Amino acid sequence: MTADGRYRIDWDEATLFWRLAFDGQTLATVCAYLPGQSPKAAPAATEWADQILASPQPWQRDGAGYQAVAK
Length: 71
Hints:
The protein has 71 residues and is α+β, with helices and mostly antiparallel strands. It is 17% helix and 38% strand. Strand 2 (17-22) and strand 3 (25-31) form a beta hairpin.
């Protein structure tokens, strides 16, 4: 998958989850605080999203989240 500006990673303060979405539809979530593990900071969240999308994306900070910018 390649970036077209429609993928986003957003931090959900209420649930302490990172959310990966495409056109506003949730594709996956990951808890930032798993027992016995370090919290998933923003760089770890972008790596997690890249693994799900099967290719590195050009993530750009956008408010409380990240937007995959179009190539």
